[in-house]
Structure formats: structure tokens, C-alpha cells
Amino acid sequence: MSAGQGTDAVLDGLRRHAHRLVAELAGPVRRVRLRSGDTVLEVEWHGPAEAAPAHRTEPDPVVAAEPPPPEPGRRTVRAPVVGTFYRAPEPGAVPFVAVGDLIRPGQVIGIVEAMKLMNEVTADQAGRVVEVLVDDGQPVEYDQPLLALEPAGQAGG
């Protein structure tokens, strides 16, 4: 194994550890730094309130596309991490859920790709999907609403 392959293997291991660590922590994580020997993996997320870097000339698509708050009586399924939201397990596949579907707690509703890791997004409550708030392949922020749900007790029809 070459030195480059060894470093790649160490980085892959650090990515897995970072993913596990972020998933276990409550609340938004702003910075993660892991070291294995001479190899360091450091990741920092910037909150939406921070200014865009000076070299950007166009508005941030996440901020511009942020949906309005859900209607009263509706609940949301939110992004567990910062990343890119995917509605299906792979390109061209049927989405995990669609408007009108009844979902149950623990059901996978999408994937957020973060640091080349695919993080399943699961519903924390039962309900009927009344609106998909984020397009497939769009960047999302931590805790951003992804789906609007009508609570299970009100889901009719």
C-alpha cells in the first residue's frame, strides 16, 4: 500500500468517526477536529447568520430558497446535518416518500450527504406528507425543514 493510499484509508476512518460523533451529539455542531498520527480531519460549519465570503457575488441558494414556517397544526421533518438533500436512494430511483404518503416514526424519508457520507433522514413522528419543502439535490442547513406533515391524528382521506 502506498503512502497516499494509507492516508486515504486513515481519512476514511476519520470521516466515519466524525459522522458517528456528530450523529451522537445533541444540537448543531460547528467544528470537528480528529487526528490519527500525522493525519488530521477538521471540519467547520458556518451558521446562516455569518456573512458570505467576499469572493461570492450571488446570493446563497439555501437562504434564498428557505421556505416559510409551516401552517398551524403542521409538523416538519428536519435535516439532521448540513449537506445535500436527496429524496431517493440513488439517481432515477423512486423517492422515499411523496405528498400524500402516510409515514411512521423511524421511516426513512430522504438522505443528506455530508462529507461524502450518506445520512439517512428518518421521521420522528407519524403523519401524512402534505408538502416536500426542499428539492432533490439542494443544499440544506442543520435543522432546516424538509417535509411538512399533517399529524397522524388529523391525517384523513
List the helices and strands and how they pair.
Elements: H1 3-24, E1 31-36, E2 39-44, H2 61-64, E3 75-78, E4 83-86, E5 102-103, E6 108-114, E7 117-122, E8 127-132, E9 138-140, E10 145-151
Principal-axes geometry comes out as: elongated
Low-confidence stretches: 48-67
Structural class: alpha+beta
User: What's the total helix number?
Assistant: 2
Task: Please give a structural write-up.
The chain is of the alpha+beta class. It has helices at 3-24, 61-64; strands spanning 31-36, 39-44, 75-78, 83-86, 102-103, 108-114, 117-122, 127-132, 138-140, 145-151. The strands form three sheets. Strands 3-10-8-5 form a four-stranded antiparallel sheet, with no helix packed on it. Strand 6 (108-114) and strand 7 form a beta hairpin. The longest helix is centred in the first third of the chain and has 22 residues, at 3-24. The chain is elongated.
